[in-house]
Amino acid sequence: MKTISIRLEDAIYEELGEMLKEMGQTKQTFYETFTRTALRERSIPFIISLPVKEEKNESREKMEAFARLEASRKAFGGALDYDKEREEAMNAKYGSVD
Predict the structure, then answer these.
(1) Is the sign of the CA dihedral 12, 13, 18, 24 positive or negative?
(2) CB of 11 within 8 A of CB of 18?
(3) pTM of the model
């Protein structure tokens, strides 16, 4: 049998101990159960994911602004003043700088 050592913040350690005590479990049984479940399922027994980054939202907003600009271009049917359109799009996104 092997021994492992895990470092946890004091508050987390205490909270985990209290929760497991209420459940009638020990930290030892918790870690063994977690490990056995991971091995049996061949995955970590809960979902691990990253929070959505702001960049993804920015990218979507940029695509929406481009779609509005393209729709405007098609509706206008003539030549566009791209500098003016870009300025309007920037003002819509960031507010007027005047």
Answers:
(1) positive
(2) no
(3) 0.45
